[in-house]
Amino acid sequence: MLISFKGTHYPKDVILYAVFFYVRYAVSYRDLEEIMQERGITVDHATLNRWVVKYSSQIAAEARKKKCQVGTSWRMDETYIKVKGRWVYLYRAVDKSGETVDFMLSETRDETAATRFFQKSIDSSGLPEKVVIDKSGANLAGLTNINIYLFLMGFWLSFIDTLQVKYLNNIVEQDHRFIKRITKPMMGFKAFHSAVATLDGIETAHMIRKGQLGQEGIPAYRQFMALAG
């Protein structure tokens, strides 16, 4: 899918480079405005914000389609992100090798949100054989709902094994650190939709960093730009 840049006053490559730089490195919009100025490009921080919000989710959607197949043993956990002065929940899963399975920002941390996250992850990455979670009852209920659905659909041999063993979740907990490091200079988000879009970009850049698009040897920002078509 080609992402439309119609009506923009800057070249496509300039826009995508700025978006990539923001979601890949720990900088503020003010920092990025200065960085772009040093490269001879005058663009204000508000415009940079609009670019990130407008294009990050579209690029992330393409990344989900093109990422390499992940393993069938997953580690799932949530971390906290501040939006409008309050904490919301970033659901994330990686496989046992640390490859990103999927992610989802939610205003709630409950059975409904957990079920929705597992459904989303299965849609993008296939059915796992095993999922390791913490002691969260909501996450356990979410996986139980998925298994009930599989039972009702007649897929008895596809039930997902569930393990609630905290130390086995170290892989995903360590993987959270990259996301938190990038979001720290942002000092929280002003709106939920902009948080979703920005995190889409950050997670996409993180997948590229881990080589999940199968394009080793190609600079990361080039891989990011290619997702725009």
TrEMBL record:
One GO BP on record is: transposition
- Any one Gene Ontology molecular-function term assigned to this protein's record: DNA binding
Q: Which InterPro entries match?
A: DDE_dom, IS_Transposase, RNaseH-like_sf, RNaseH_sf, Transpos_IS6
Q: Which residues form the DDE domain?
A: 72-212
One Pfam family, short name please?
DDE_Tnp_IS240
Could you list this entry's UniProt keywords, alphabetically sorted. Answer: DNA recombination, DNA-binding, Transposition
PANTHER family per UniProt: BLL1675 PROTEIN
Function of the molecule: Involved in the transposition of the insertion sequence.
Protein name (record): IS6 family transposase
Q: Which organism is it from?
A: Microbulbifer okhotskensis
